[in-house]
Each structure stands twice: as C-alpha cells, then as structure tokens.
Amino acid sequence: MFNDKVQxxxxxxxxxxxxxxxxxxxxxQSDCEIGGPHLYVDKMxxxxxxxxxxxxxxRTAAEEIDHYRKFARVAGDxxxxxxxxxxxxxxxxxxxxxxxxxxTREDFAVFGFLIDRIGHYQLDEFVGGSYAPLEPLxxxxxxxxxxxxxxxxxxxxxxxxxxxxxREKVQKALDYWYVKALDMFGRSESKRSERFCYxxxxxxxxxxxxxxYIKEVNPLIEEMGLRVxxxxxxxxxx
Length: 238
Fold this sequence. Notes:
It is a single chain. By secondary structure, this protein is mainly alpha-helical. The chain has a single domain, classed as Ferritin, core subunit, four-helix bundle (Ferritin, Up-down Bundle), CATH 1.20.1260.10. 63% of the residues lie in helices and 0% in strands. The longest helix is centred in the first third of the chain and has 32 residues. It is globular. The model has no long low-confidence stretch (mean pLDDT 97).
C-alpha cells in the first residue's frame, strides 16, 4: 500500500501506473463537474417555479462550474489539459448519468438527492489521499455539494408529499436515477478500483462505496414514503 504524499512537482517521478490513474481521475471528475449544469440549466433555470428556486438553480450551476475550474487547475499543474470537456456533447460524457438531459422538476430534485450524493461520495474518497494538491479543494467543494443534496432531498420530499400524480412522477424519476447512481460506482470486480486504493488515490473499492451509499440512501427513500427501486433492474455495471 502506497502511503506517501505526492506533490505536483513529484508527479513525473511517479510510477506510470500512478500517473495514468491520477490523470484519469482528474479528467472524469472535471467532466462530471461540468456535466451537471449541461444537463439541467437550459430547462430548469427559466422553468423554475419561484424566484428562489431560480436563484438556487443558478447558484448550483455556478458552484459546479467553479468545481470544474478547481479540478482543471490541479490537472493543469501536471500538464493535463481537460478543457475539451467544456464543449463535449452530453452523449460523450464519461459517466452515463450525464449523457441525457433534465427537463422536469421531479428529475431535477431527484438528481440532487441521489446523484449529487454520489458526487459527495466521490469527493470524500480523496480526503487524506496520496495526491496532496487535492486536499485544499475539498472542504469548500464538499460543503457546497451537501447544499445541493439538501435542496434535492427537500424538493423530492415536497413533491412526494403532494401525493397522487406528483408522487407517481417522483417515483418514476427515482426509479430512473437510483439505477444510474448505483452504476456510477463502477464495476464491483474492478481491478482499476483496487489500484486506486493501492496507490492511495481513493479509500474505498467500488463495492464498498456502493454498499455504504445504499445503506445511507435506502432509509431516506422509505422515510419519504417512496419505494426503493430494484437495485439490479437496468444496471450496466454489476
């Protein structure tokens, strides 16, 4: 197990496997950060039901764009240019959850509740990790992600509590995004996941992180009076 702290100036001295893993992580993380706003801004910003909701959508997008900027700067310090993800079409995003579009209030709420929660899990992987330049970024980004999660959970609960058609729409959105969320952790038997842990870039394997997520989120879904979706139906990565 690798336990050293690596600075940007040390990057080129590192084993090629470490360099490849870190570059992959920074590229995908940057793509995910900018991918979120590309999903929802077009429809959700002008279609927000209140001025406060509109402000929150705008602020959420601005924070995610700033997260991209911070990760892009860390990438640039090791000679990695991730600017291509800014103009990458949704269909070419690295993570499948970011390849569509969000056009309904229910989808936007559940996205914040479930998918931004995955973002928090991914960021938490880097806390105390081997690549030191990531550490200063994390407190502020994680705090902002928690705000996105809280807004998503609150709106999901409010829409579900309206009952009837509104609850059905929320359940439909939940069925869709729950499976996407579980897939975001990757394959259970991933050798790359094990190498991330070996090199100290991440703390948990895909299987461990997914199990913790399920343990956290399933009771929250049930507390809202919603049905926990089938965790296997429609999954791409088991």
